[in-house]
């Protein structure tokens, strides 16, 4: 009776309903995030070019040699280092989450060169104002930044080819070592099997020394030298 009532109560219990997805709230949150991203982008595009141009102008100080040197340093460092960070993504042991983190880090590290590029190719009012600031206080900075970036790209390409060749050489060396160890292991196993076979083989007794037939005949019949005195005695 108890089991029947339990079964009937279990059968009458309705299945648990899955919680409904509130798509309306999700859509509202998505729209708010898009609006905030658009406002932030507009503010940054209006503020960052002029801020970056003033920062470079203060560092160069109107010196042509300073603009050349600083442009080379910025162009090379903030191109080569981000490429090195991105180069780590190729490893299989790096998870997708860390690949995303490395990508964001590479973009942040290359932001000085991206800001300079945005100023030089930009068409906004802030970009034009920044171009005038750099043109009067840091004349050669953009050109030599591009030169440093090109040098960094060429050197990184050489480094990439060398790294791939070195990795291939390492894999080939490991493969040769594995083959050598396998050959030595097979040789040791062969020697051990031969030694085990020799130890387990029965020892055969050496046959007794057999007399040769001519020796047996000579031992059974008297020699010619022994029979000669007997004939003399008979005579």
Automatic annotation (TrEMBL):
Chain positions covered by the region annotation Disordered: 177-235
Chain intervals with Basic and acidic residues compositional bias: 177-200
Keywords annotated in UniProt: Membrane, Transmembrane, Transmembrane helix
Ranges that cross the membrane: 27-52, 64-89, 101-121, 141-165
Compositional bias per record (Polar residues), positions renumbered to this chain: 201-228
Protein name, per record: Multisubunit Na+/H+ antiporter MnhG subunit
